[in-house]
Amino acid sequence: MIRLLQKNGWVLGLVALMVLLFVMTKVIQPNFGASGIGALSRAALPFAFATAGMAIVVIVGGIDLSVASMMAVAGVASAALMHALGNEGSLLVILAVLALGLAMGAINGALIVVTKVPDIVVTLAMLFVWEGVALLILSAPGGSAAPALRAIITGPVSVPFLPEAITAFIPKSLVVLVVCLAVVWVPLSHSKLGLWIYAVGSDPLAAFRSGVPIGLTRIVAYALCGLFAALGGLSLTLSTGIGEPIPGPYLMASVAAVVLGGVVLGGGVGGLLGPIIAVFILRILRMDLTLLSVDPNVSAIIEGTIMAVVVMFGGLVALRGRRA
Amino acid sequence: MTEAQADMPILDAVGISKSFGAVAALKDASLRVGRGEIVALMGANGAGKSTLVKILTGVLRRDGGEIRINGQARSVRNPRRARAAGLVPVYQEPSLIPDLDVRANLRLGDTPVEPFMARVKELGIEGLRLDDMIGALPLATLRILDLARALASEPDVLMLDEMTAALPADLVERVLKVVRAEAKAGRSVIYISHRFNEIAQICDRATVLRDGHTVGDLRIEPGVEDRIVELMLGQSLGEGLRVEPRAVARDGTPRVRVRGLRAGTKLGDVSFDLHRGEVLGVVALEGQGQDELFDVLAGFRKPDAGGFDLDGTPARFGHPADAIAAGLTYVPGDRSEGLLMARSVRENIALPLLARPRNWGAIRMKDEATRVKAAIEKLQIDTRAQGEVRKLSGGNQQKVTIGRWVATGVDTLLLFDPTRGIDVRTKRQIYGLVRELSDQGAAVLFYTSELDEVLQACDRAVVIFNGRVVDEIDTQTADHQLLLRAAYGLTEKDRLEAAS
Lengths: 324, 500
Hints:
The complex is a heterodimer.
Chain A: H1 2-28, H2 34-59, H3 67-85, H4 90-115, H5 119-137, H6 147-153, H7 164-167, H8 172-189, H9 192-202, H10 204-209, H11 214-240, H12 250-260, H13 273-291, H14 296-323
Helix pairs in contact in A: 1-13, 2-8, 2-11, 2-12, 2-13, 3-4, 3-5, 3-11, 4-5, 4-11, 9-11, 12-13, 13-14
Chain B: H1 3-7, E1 11-20, E2 23-33, E3 38-43, H2 49-56, E4 64-69, E5 72-73, H3 79-84, E6 87-90, H4 102-108, H5 113-122, H6 139-152, E7 157-161, H7 169-184, E8 188-192, H8 196-202, E9 205-210, E10 213-219, H9 224-233, E11 256-263, E12 267-274, E13 279-283, H10 290-297, E14 305-310, E15 313-315, H11 320-325, E16 328-331, H12 345-354, H13 365-379, H14 394-408, E17 412-416, H15 424-439, E18 443-447, H16 451-457, E19 460-465, E20 468-474, H17 480-487, H18 492-499
Helix pairs in contact in B: 5-6, 12-13, 12-14, 13-14, 14-15
């Protein structure tokens, strides 16, 4: 039990912080309720997907600076496709965009593995490449989102036999997020591949000597990052109803959430749950500061400070734990 | 089994060659291992031992030559292939993943859990849990886990690279016993070690490499050590194996006087004097508090009780810089702790010269170059692999860690297992260097995990057992057996008392 607490201490701490922030929100805005949670969850969706992708490449010991650009490509591609195909082509659009994401990520990974150029350099270059690709697909915001797909992430869920008083607080977008992450992460973390990802991130040499195919593992990790970036881009288009070729502020936000979520930059440590909770923490914080009508520039300072404090505090706790 | 099959070597590597750029690491290396045989692979630093091992285990690809396993030519292109062919290595550095627990590490290599745990027990590690994180386990335990993991995969040929280097004496005995039992049961072992006594204990044959060639293949029998050393060095043995006696003035104020030092859970109560011009050995099994002792003296941690005087003045360090300023220089056994691996030999040697405020600003290149050159020549550092220190062999790296302090001028040297995993020739150079420094008036504290070294390098030695100094040894009269007994806390005095 104590071991379990030790291993998941960071995530539990984050949950506590999130609850605290929810309470604060309720104090600041007494009528914060179901619709507020729905809006929050929908706004957090693209951030959460970007963060999930980033978390995987950071765990494997890399970083992907092109995540926001890949989201833009997936966003405009899906907007253009949905504009052409309408409701009937929904499934096709989803599959095509996911395949596109996997391909983009795999290209990033393969370039890193084959050329042996540092990941930060390769993905910085690819940031511009994918940005250009997005602008080639749509030179200005445009396209549209299929209403059938938009409905998937808007509004609360309806579950038979559950009173609406409860379901009203469960936004569909949150369910979509949890399902998408679980479908990829749960099988992954129980497979050899998941183990390889952690092994390569922790100590590539030892992993190589243990017989892990290092190059393949890296490529798969980057491909998964591309997949999540595509989901992020798709969800962005679905929530705004339009394809936006200029990348949003997802790169830095995802790195921030990954670090706050307990994934160690350098690799080998962490999971998906922590970073996803961290995304919500950062979103609620932003929302609260807006509700308090704090100057946006000041709120950026506050966000950065809180992040630094939390991560340093975590470092201190870890240090103490090791001494004891 | 027919006669021919019984005679066929299980592993037969012939004419292996490998070059790194202009440097030919292996030219014509051969190694033959029969079923149930333990073969020692020996050679000085840079002879090509590590390269041959890496080729056999699929970490490197050979340029030429042939590897036959059970009579069939095999490619062993990567570690996975090598394992599949029955060649399983245990490397000098643990190859377990630090951020995963024991169970996940086993899954990584498809190691069966039950046999693994049985091996762990057999090798003398108690209380290991499958959910222990690898990163939190001590180094000695990791080496044992590596070995247990290798054995659990039932290899045809087990390759042990300096298996006992970081192990305390009691675990070494266990490991040797298990390895011998495995050979008796028909498993073959390639045993790489610098410790002759271990090789004499368990090996059947020794294959000796020099400058990338296999220069000898000898049956292990009494007295073969000299022949092996001759082959390794390419010259016959001149000097003896014991330090020459010399007079050390121990009546003045000691350079370092340690009194009642206590730190952490292991270092209980240690007192001794270290004089100028003296090499004082520290004899201790693993984990008797020597790590903490050196940490305190080097300013890495503060003592819980007691303290030490420098030249008669009480000293207390809050930071390693305080220790360096006071003239105490720490040389770690783990070379990566002390070196900038990606920088050049020159920069590494020059770094301590620069790390003084009065030297901040422009570097006086000419002055630096002369001092660095002098240090390189004095230590005979092999600088063929120009550029990064990382590319040097282990022995040469260690020479750089010491060389940097030679260039600076040294006052008090704290050597913590400085010859770990280094060949005989380099070791002797290091002993000679240490002796020369102490002749010039340096005080040297010398801990080594290899007991025989104490006789070869130190004027006198203190024995630390269970966190306390239990004995002092005169290296002129002591022998290996006495050292071993002392290290186990069975001191000469006790023996006499028991006899009377």
